[in-house]
Amino acid sequence: MPSIDRRTLLAGAAATTALAATAARSQDDMVQAEPDLSGKAIIITGCSSGFGRLGAEHYARRGAKVFATMRNLPRPESDELRQLARDENLDLHVIEIDVLSDAQVAAGVAEAERINGGPLDVLVNNAGIGVSGPVEVQDMEATKLIFDTNVLGCHRMVRAVLPGMRSQKSGAIFQISSQLGRVIVPYAGHYSATKFALEAMGEQLAYELVPHNIDVTIIEPGGYPTEVWVNRNIYTKALKERASAAHTDGYQQVVARMGEEDGSRRTADPMDVPNAIARVLAMPPGTRPLRMPVHPGAKPQIPINEVTAKVQTEWLGQSPFGPMIKAVHNRS
After folding, report:
1. Beta bridge partners of 68
2. Active site residues
């Protein structure tokens, strides 16, 4: 096993733990100071709207070289971002990546590395979809699509960027999960299942990448008024139209509402998520928290995060994996 020394320095451990706990428990996730992201090369998936689009603009304005990716180019959203980059003189580049495509992921990351003149510093795995309804109603088409997007798509991106990050012995990966990656709401389809999987993948990556000085942070947003609910309605209505009565009969009232979600009741500021990512990214390498709940309201996942960190540390802390586990959880 490679030697591990970056997070075992006890001098900063207490301060780091306190900072992570404060961030997790805070009811105000807005960043108070604007971090300087100069020198960071950041690639983001799903930048046509929502957290991805807002993040691309925000990080570029903070000095980063940003590679904003989206599928199905050309499209108006890509033209808008390119025009914004010209108008504000931002180091922002739009690249086509559909995370469902092995070829597009490989080619898109290679193009970003070519433009950057070397490996990328940061991956924000933001692209994701939802398909609502009872689990029984989720047919194999819907099930494969959501897992391929929310889980395998993130894995494709991680595999594409990691050789470069390992070569430079530094990097940061952000997995955009959800509160529903730790708690479950009935009739949300396989959304929680995919986000639970993403959480597990992210945590395992965090341990395994300690020797390579690469941080992994799992962002856990609550509900925000982004375009995700519009796209969810499109996928969910299509599922409802092709669903068999053999599966829908047991959930008639729920099925009747499938594809009718109204995101207007959500009032939290979506900029909370890019702000939280920028704040974590500005922290010293090796001190970034594994998980970052983000929402001005309730964060029901916090006690779950705390107990799983405790269990992991107590279970494996004295094993050969102990230095990795302790490094990630900032425990001595």
Report:
1. 44, 94
2. 191
Which uninterrupted H or E stretch holds 176?
strand 171-176
Side-chain-side CA neighbours of residue 327 (13 Å): 28
The answer, yes or no, to whether the previous bond of 74 is cis (omega within 30 of 0) is yes
Please report, as a single letter, which amino acid is at residue 3. S
Tell me, what CATH number does 62's domain have? 3.40.50.720
Calpha distance 200→220 (Å, rounded): 13
pLDDT at 31 over 70: no
pTM, to two decimals: 0.89
Computed over every residue of the chain, the mean pLDDT equals 90
Instruction: Confirm whether 117 is domain-assigned.
Output: yes
Share of residues in the chain with pLDDT > 90 (%): 84
Q: Which of 232, 260, 258, 308 is closest to 24 using CA atoms?
A: 308
**Portion of the chain with pLDDT greater than 70, in percent:** 89
What pLDDT score does 33 carry? 61
CB 175 within 8 A of CB 154: yes
Structure token digits, residue 148: 């391929």
Q: Look at residue 222 and tell me if it is in a domain.
A: yes
CB contact burial 216-243 (16+ within 10 A = b; e otherwise) = bbbbbbbbbebbbbebbbebbeebbeeb
Q: How many domains does the chain have?
A: 1
Alpha-carbon distance of 93 to 271, in angstroms, equals: 21
Confidence check: pLDDT of 158 > 80: yes
Q: What is the edge-to-edge ordering of all strands in the sheet holding 65-70?
A: 92-96, 65-70, 41-44, 122-125, 171-176, 214-221, 291-294
Helix axes 76-88, 50-61, angle to 10 degrees: 10
Q: Name the nearest CA neighbour of 24 among 209, 284, 300.
A: 300
């669903």: which residue's tokens?
Answer: 243
